[in-house]
Amino acid sequence: MTTDLSTTYLGLSLRTPIVASAGPYTRDLDHARQLAEAGMSALVLPSLFEEEILHEENELTSALDALAGTNAEATDFFPDDVFERFDSPADRYLEHIEAVKAAVDVPVIASLNAGSHGAWTSYARLIASAGADALELNLYHVAADPDRTGHDVEQADEFLVGEIAKLMEIPVAVKVSPFYSSMANMARRFVDAGAAGLVLFNRFYQPDLDPDSREVRPTLELSSPWELRLPLRWIALLRPALPEVSLAATTGIESGRDVAKALLVGADVAMMTSAVLRHGPDHVRRVEREFVEWATEHEYDSVAQLRGSVSAANTEHPDAFERANYVRTLHSYTLN
Amino acid sequence: MTAEWTCLDGNEAAARVAYALSEVVAIYPITPASPMGEYADDWAAAGKPNRWGLVPDVIEMQSEAGAAGTLHGALQKGALATTFTASQGLLLMIPNMFKIAGELTPCVIHVAARTLATHALSIFGDHSDVMHARTTGWALLSAASVQEAHDFALVSHAATLRSRVPFLHFFDGFRTSHEINKIALLDDATLAALVGDDDIVDHRLRGLTPDAPTLRGTAQNPDVFFQAREACNPFYEAVPGIVAGVFDELAERTGRRYGLVEYHGAPDAERVIVLMGSAAGTAAETVESLTARGEKVGVLVVRLYRPFPAEALLAALPGTVTSIAVLDRTKEPGALGEPLYLDVVTALAEAVGRGQRAAMPRVIGGRYGLSSKELTPAHLGGVFAELSAEQPRPRITVGIVDDVTHLSVGPADVHYARPAGEVQAMFFGLGSDGTVGANKSSIKIIGEETDLYAQGYFVYDSKKSGSVTVSHLRFGPQPIRSTYLIDDADFVACHQFGLLSKMKVLEFAKPGATFLLNSPYSADTVWDRLPEEVQQQLVDKHIQFWVIDAVSVARAAQMGNRLNTVMQPCFFQLSGVLPADEAIQHIKASVQKSYGKRGRSVVERNFAAIDASLAALQRVEVPATVTATTRRSAPVPEGAPDFVQRVTAIMLAGDGDLLPVSALPVDGVFPTGTAAFEKRSLALEIPIFDPDVCIDCGRCAAVCPHAAIRMKVYEPAAIAGAPEGFKTKSFRSKDAAGLSMTIQVAPDDCTGCGVCVDVCPAKSKQAVRHKAINMEPADQHREAERPMWDFFLSIPELDRDLLGHDTVKGAQALQPLFEFSGACLGCGETPYIKLATQLFGDRMLIANATGCSSIYGGNLPTTPYTKNAEGRGPAWANSLFEDNAEFGLGIRLGYEAQAREARMLLARLADRLPAELVNGLLQAEQSTDAGLRAQRTRVDQLRLALAGIDHPDAVHLRSLAGALVDNAVWIIGGDGWAYDIGFGGLDHVLSSGRNVNVLVLDTEVYSNTGGQASKATQRGAVAKFAAAGKPSAKKDLGAIARSYGNVYVAQISMGANDLQATRALLEAEAWPGPSLIIAYSTCIAHGIDMSQSMTHQKDAVRSGYWPLYRYSPVDAEHGTPFKLDSAEPSIRIADFISAEARFAVLSRTHPQQAAELGEMLQSDADERWRYYTQLAGVERRVTVRHAHPEIDDTATDTED
Question: In B206-306, at which residue ranges do the beta strands (DSSP E only) sit?
Answer without folding.
Answer: 261-265, 271-275, 297-302, 304-306
